Amino acid sequence: MQVLDVEHLVHLELRNWLRELIDLCHPDRVHVCDGSKQENDRLCADLVAAGTFIKLNPYERLGSYLACSNPKDVARIEERTFICSETEEEAGPTNNWRKPSEMRPHLRRLFNGCMRGRTMYVIPFSMGPLGSKMSLIGVQVTDSPYVVVNMRIMTRMGKEVLDVLGGDLEFIPCVHSVGKPLTPKEKDPPWPCNPEETVLAHFPKSREIWSYGSGYGGNALLGKKCLALRIASVIGRDQGWLAEHMLILGITNPEGEKRYIAAAFPSACGKTNLAMLTSSLPDWKIETVGDDICWMREGEDGRLWAINPESGMFGVAPGTSMTSNPNAVAAMKKNTIFTNCALEPLGDVWWEGCGEDPPPLLRDWRGGRWDPQSGEPAAHPNARFTTPLAQCPVVDPAWNDPNGVPISAILFGGRRSSTVPLVFQSFGWDHGTFLGATVSSETTAAAAGVVGKLRHDPFAMLPFCGYHMGDYFQHWLDVGGALQAEKLPKIFYCNWFLKDASGNFLWPGYGENIRVLKWIFERCDGRGAAEESPIGFLPTPEAFDVSDLEVNVKALFHVDRQQWLQEAQDLEYYFKLFGAHLPKTLADELHNLRRRLS
Ligand code: GTP
Ligand code: SPV
Ligand code: MN
Fold first, then answer.
1. Is residue 329 a contact partner of residue 278, using CB atoms and an 8 Å limit?
2. How many CA atoms lie within 13 A of 260 on its CB side?
3. Could you tell me the distance, in angstroms and rounded to a whole number, from the CA of residue 438 to the centre of ligand 2?
4. How far apart are CA 178 and CA 198, in angstroms?
5. I need a labelling partner for 349 at 20 to 30 A (CA). Which of 77, 88, 259, 594 fits?
6. Which residue's CA is the closest to the ligand 2 atom numbered 7?
7. CATH 3.90.228.20 occupies which residues in the chain?
8. Minimum-distance ligand to the CA of 505?
9. Which positions ≥6 away from 544 have C-beta within 8 Å?
10. Which pLDDT band holds residue 1 (cuts at 50, 70, 90)?
């Protein structure tokens, strides 16, 4: 382990920024992270000693730990997430806005002395392959060692990033504190946090992130949603590229031809599962480039090329099993941090839907003996695993390629129990942009608040767009408009979550989703028959492979005019929200949808 010291950092701006933060936060110690294994081992040992981590049984889970959070700190908190643009209009109607001149003094008060009794860790990290033209560098300061060891999995982190940063490259400053300074005699709780004062502030103009009070997920691992989506969406708008809440997968057909597909579904709606699905169709193969975030820009050949800015997965544990997602199960056999799972007496983790009955004497995520009669789940519904993407058995050979991968198709989708058929294709890029703008989905446990409520979540970016959503729609139209039509990815909409009258899923999902991807692949090839419907192209019965499956094809592809007229009516209201920022092209698309329906 090398001892890196703030005063020896060659980057003047970084050094000055850190000095200011040390003055403000008053940490007892400062540690610049080198990203080494030794450093990680020591931090994990410290976390075990502090009671934050429980070391799991090494025969089951080598190098792996369980952390259980404070019950008040279990998910992203959208009400406390702010975009601090100069004007409210720039943040737009879908974001919480605070005037920078109000937020800055508020943050100064909160951060003043907030790291007393703690170590300030400095994490240099790269979102995207080291040194790629498409990558961005951030430096996160945090007083949470749990955050450091998670960031080491989720990003490229440490000394090698400082080397790329050199003396003068730009970095995105990210400041994080759990908001729980310690007095000299005070004992640190296992999961320090400050739910009453939690705030997550983004400054799109100066490209800064300040997060206070939460140690959980996207609130605290600032490279993820804060940098790679909220701030990167603003940078992408300014520079002509796209920062999206999308998985990226490679799909190879039985002839050995390969294509790449990106897909946007809202939080906890199936990205990780689709990104590494095990095909139920023989000789079709899926490989994973990314499971949550995708940055896309025009390549030298005029196509859209994509990278995954992350290097790990922060995946939803409940529901992950050998039947639903064997690749994720294999990936998390070692070097994995589990958060808010249940603990078995023999030192392995357990969750609802893991494929095994709960063993006796299970400890629930709150730390007490789990009572199966209680009706409460043993693992929190938003329990997560943090695991290196490189450990996924089907990680794509190009996942770390600095040039990214060329995208042939883009999917949008949401969790809809009715109305939206299993899959359909847009009439073109503009109509595809319209489909992205119209995504609605039932809310999930990934964010604090009610679960199961249908809400608009355009492009699955509602909580993640750093500027006016209407302008974001226009940006999508502009990016597409700048590319040659034949080079544009084809755009599709899908829905794995249709239900029948008794509330059962109409579609088996998971590995069977390959059948949808197969049709998409063939559509990109100019094969794969489709018929026009008022909402887009639907697969013809012959073109959609349901061999060996017993499903109600008619119900899966039914387009109910009444329901869709209702949908269009609702969109009419929704689009008003964006006022003059709604692109006319999208208003026209809505008008055309209504015309086709009537
Ligand atoms: P974030 O990490 O929050 O962005 O979530 P995600 O979009 O990656 O969702 P993920 O793949 O983790 O899935 C979330 C939940 O949806 C899990 O409980 C899955 O079991 C469930 N799920 C995923 N794919 C399918 C599917 O094809 N059908 C059904 N019915 N459920 C699915
Ligand atoms: C999501 O909510 O979309 C996630 C989890 O991927 S978090 O990192 O907490 O945002
Ligand atoms: Mn996500």
1. no
2. 24
3. 21
4. 9
5. 77
6. 218
7. 243-311+400-597
8. 1
9. 515, 519, 553, 557
10. very low
Q: Is 218 in the pocket of ligand 2 (CB under 6 A)?
A: yes
- The ligand placed nearest to the CA atom of residue 245 is 3
Domain at 6-32+79-239, CATH homologous superfamily: Phosphoenolpyruvate Carboxykinase, domain 1 (3.40.449.10)
Atom 4, ligand 2: which residue's CA is nearest?
Answer: 267
346: number of CA atoms within 13 Å, CB side?
8
CA atoms of 106 and 359, how far apart (whole Å):
48
Please state, in angstroms and rounded to a whole number, the distance separating the CA atoms of residues 205 and 228. Answer: 15
Inter-helix orientation angle 429-437/584-597, to 10°: 90
CA 396-150-376 angle, to 5 degrees, is: 100
pLDDT(3) > 80: no
What lines the ligand 1 site, CB under 6 Å?
A: 265, 267-273, 291-292, 315-316, 318-319, 324, 446, 496-497, 505, 509-510, 513
Round to whole Å and give the CA distance between 165 and 519: 44
Tens-place pLDDT, residues 226-251:
999 999 999 999 999 999 999 999 99
In this prediction, residue 2 carries a pLDDT of: 52
Give mean pLDDT, residues 131-141: 96
pTM for the model stands at: 0.98
Give the model confidence (pLDDT) of 323-365 as tens digits. 999 999 999 999 999 999 999 999 999 999 999 999 999 999 9
- Residue 90 CB partners (closer than 8 Å, separation 6+): 83, 204, 467, 468
Local confidence band at 131 (pLDDT 50, 70, 90 cut-offs):
confident
CATH 2.170.8.10 fits 52-67+312-392, yes or no: yes
Architecture of domain 243-311+400-597: Alpha-Beta Complex (3.90)
Atom 6, ligand 2: residue with shortest CA distance = 267
The CATH 3.40.449.10 portion of the chain extends over 6-32+79-239
Q: Give me the mean pLDDT over the 88-105 stretch.
A: 98
User: Cα–Cα distance between 243 and 460 in angstroms, integer?
Assistant: 12
Assess contact for 420 and 497: CB atoms under 8 A.
Answer: no
Whether ligand 2 lies within 6 angstroms of the CB of 297 is answered as: no
pLDDT for position 4: 78
Pocket flag, ligand 2, residue 446 (CB < 6 Å): yes
In a 3-state reduction of DSSP, which class is residue 583? coil
pLDDT tens digits, 431-490: 999 999 999 999 999 999 999 999 999 999 999 999 999 999 999 999 999 999 999 999
Q: What percent of the chain has pLDDT over 70?
A: 99
